[in-house]
Sequence to fold (142 residues):
Amino acid sequence: LGLCFASMTQAATLLDKSSASHFINDFYKALKSHDARKLDLMIADDAKIQLHLVKMHQSFTLSKSDYLQQIKASWHFAKQENFDLSDINYTGNGGTGSLTLKMTESKEILDEKISFNNEMTVSLVVADDMIKIAALTTDSTF
Fold:
């Protein structure tokens, strides 16, 4: 029982406002630097990714592998990627937490500069002694 409590306390101290904010910034640094291995480690295997494309009135639910495949495909066509995060807010209790944030994504695809806004909710868990994305929902102006 003592070991279980110590483990729960360790998970709770691992996931807090500061570590969650640091985690999401690291996630987008890995995305920008095309670090597929790090991104894979940062997303839980059973994560659910929900994308809502507001202008197109379309929604998609992706598995972790499908989401990573989409990211890798965009790396082949996109240049000068930037991810500007703002309004990062954290709520959490124990080994789980949630971030809400705004992210402006800009890049150049096939010599055309594009930019779009995302309002996001990112659910976080502690697994394998590290913070991971359990779910990601975004409403995008793309």
In short: The beta strands are 43-53, 58-62, 78-93, 96-109, 112-127, 130-140. The longest helix spans residues 17-32. Residues 1-12 have pLDDT under 50 and may be disordered. The longest strand covers residues 78-93.
